[in-house]
Amino acid sequence: MQVVGIVPIVAPQEIADGENYKEKVKFLCNKSVASINIKMEFNDYCNADSIKRIELTKEMILIAVKRIITKVDFDYDRFKEDLISLQ
To answer: Which of 25, 43, 41 minimizes the C-alpha distance to 33?
Structure first.
């Protein structure tokens, strides 16, 4: 795995439930690239302060990456440590 692209979907529920905003995982280029569309709770994100938004984003990234670890060679634990260490 060389590239992981994560596309957050942050929209009110009535919009996020639409056909164009489904969560999905796609592998490209012989599984060297993963594209992950994932929803984030709109109200939680919009009502959060900047510190909480960063925390929510980190959680969303970890959830997204967990969706690919059984299908490709990816060191999730190392990635998680690196992400959590970011301020």
So the answer is: 25
Are 25 and 31 in contact, with CB atoms under 8 Å apart?
A: no
Q: Which amino acid is at 1?
A: M
Cβ-contact 12, 28 below 8 angstroms: no
Burial group, residue 20, by CB count within 10 angstroms (0-12, 13-18, 19+): exposed
What phi, psi does 34 have (nearest 5°)? -120, 135
**Alpha-carbon distance values, 66 to 14, 21, 63, 73 (Å):** 26, 20, 5, 12
Output the CA torsion sign for 43, 48, 53, 59. negative
pLDDT by residue, tens only, the chain of 87 residues = 789 999 999 999 888 888 889 999 999 999 999 999 999 999 999 999 999 999 999 999 999 999 999 899 889 999 999 999 987
